[in-house]
Amino acid sequence: MQFIPTLQLDVMNEIGNMGAGHAATALSLLMGRKVDMAVPETKFLSIEAGCAELSREGEVGVGVEVGLSGSIDGLTLLTVDEDGALHLLLAFGDMLAGQGLDDALAQSALMEIGNIVTGSFLTAITDFLGESSYALPPRFIHDYFDAFVCNVVVAGCRNVDGLLVFKTELKVDDRCVSSDLAFLPSQEAFGLIMNKILSAGGMS
């Protein structure tokens, strides 16, 4: 597997925190309440290690898969456990009162959260690169982590041998919801990102 030096991971983590700041602002507007988001850690993992990192054995969770097109193509997968997803739905107040994870309105709300998080991270990355890209319509997944994570990761890691995982924390109503954002760029997009970081010598 390709090795990423600490400098590049530090830069990606800084970019991730910029994206988290954008996402928190947009989610606060969407939910009508204060939302904070941070990226305490970014990891570059092999496909096998990535599947293990994102999976939670025997647990059911929610995933929002978003395809990417443009200079930075590939896909993202945002995952959160069921309790975290239900807490995010409660943050919408009366709008989603009584809605469960299998209800269309709840799924639409969670897909919008996935769209916002992906779009915010993508904006941070493309701003750094001076490139353009956009998110495609999301896909909602509600299943055992073991059942869907590796299928998405393996399908997304075509011609690349690893993926970036942003460990994220969403704070809504004083409760922290831990989630993972897997970023699976194409081989060309990954090379573009790494070359830019090397040429820039990091971020000031």
Structure description:
- This protein is α+β, with helices and mostly antiparallel strands and 204 residues long.
- It has one domain (6-200): CheC-like (Chemotaxis protein chec).
- Helix content is 47%, strand content 32%.
- The chain is built from 6 helices and 6 strands.
- The protein has helices at residues 6-31, 47-54, 82-90, 104-129, 145-156, 187-200, and strands at 35-46, 60-70, 74-81, 133-144, 162-172, 175-185.
- It has a 6-stranded antiparallel β-sheet with strand order 1-5-6-3-2-4, with helices on both faces.
- Helix 1 crosses helix 4.
- The longest helix is centred in the N-terminal third of the chain and has 26 residues, at 6-31.
- The radius of gyration is 16 Å and the shape is globular.
- The model has no long low-confidence stretch (mean pLDDT 89).
Count of folded domains: 1
* Terminal-residue CA separation: 29 Å
Based on helices, strands and strand pairing, what is the structural class? alpha+beta
* SSE string, helices as H and strands as E: HEHEEHHEHEEH
CATH topology: Chemotaxis protein chec
Helix run count:
6
CATH superfamily: CheC-like
Summarize the structure.
With 204 residues, this protein is of the alpha+beta class. The chain is built from 6 helices and 6 strands. The chain has helices spanning 6-31, 47-54, 82-90, 104-129, 145-156, 187-200, and strands at residues 35-46, 60-70, 74-81, 133-144, 162-172, 175-185.
